[in-house]
Amino acid sequence: MKTSRWMRGVGILAIGAVAAAACTSATDSADGDTGEVIVVEDNFGEQEVPASAKSVVATDNTSFQTLSDWGVELTAGAVTLMPDTSPYKTDDDIIDLGSHREPNLEAVVAVEPDLIINGNRYGQYRDDFKSLAPDAAIVEVSPRDDEPLDDELKRETTVLGEVFGKESEAEALNEAFDESIARVQDAYDSDTTVMGVIVSGGQIRYVVPGKGRTIGPLFDIFDFTPALEVPEGSDDHQGDDISVEAIAASNPDLILVMDRDAAISGDEEGFTPAQSVIEDSAALQNVPAVKDGAVVYMPADTYTNESIQTYTAFFDQLAERLDELDA
Questions:
Q1: How far is it, in rounded angstroms, from Cα 187 to Cα 295?
Q2: Could you please report the per-residue DSSP string of 92-145?
Q3: Model-level pTM?
């Protein structure tokens, strides 16, 4: 079994997030608001954030589950981008700002936000929000592309915990995440070759190790041995267009799957689950991973969720499957 190297990221929690200790009080307002703020460090540096925000807007899909689990009420958000598994999705009191492709940014004005959790697909609209809601604090802590994903997910959770006074809950999430990583690292053998794929539009598409969407970073976290490495691969959200025959020819011992279709069209007529797409692929029938039942699927809402909880659940599932295969 492979020894764990996850300790490289433990110290990162204190970096770029612990600036939240500073608090400043202003004169009490007529409605009892103390005007107290905290200082946190996000992707753009230090941000002053109201200690008790009255109108919270969220557009970063990596934060939705955490905010919901912590009972954070939203006045507006990117509801269109939210997974169907989120309670926010059916909350009619939340004004929908739309998708990142067709946003209704001006709608944010009506809720007079004092805090906006922005980022990820909505990251491009930071300046727009600054103009539309000049009095709002904008916090962006979605994982950065040039940093290790595991460190970034924990940093995001830590900062959100500081913002919403949920430090102990954030610590618990990070601990569970670390434990799930350790489980996979202990169960994985480097002789096992790994393939990552995204099922999109009913097609099986290749995920570039270290770079490809969602699954790519897992090769770095777990030091997976790639079954196939293709020069100049991309981080395309639908995966790279490589023939299923080429995927089969690489003979992966383990296949990791994100079902993009399940997250965006799972309730539509004609939807075919990724498991069926892979099991019905004639080219993959003799691949070791398929023959041995070593195909592990990420949670169905992963593409629109991508929270630390999503990865924790998947890593636990992956560790369990690896243990079963090794038994």
A1: 15
A2: TTSEE-B-SSSB-GGGGGGG--SEEE--GGGGGGHHHHHHH-TTSEEE--SPPT
A3: 0.86
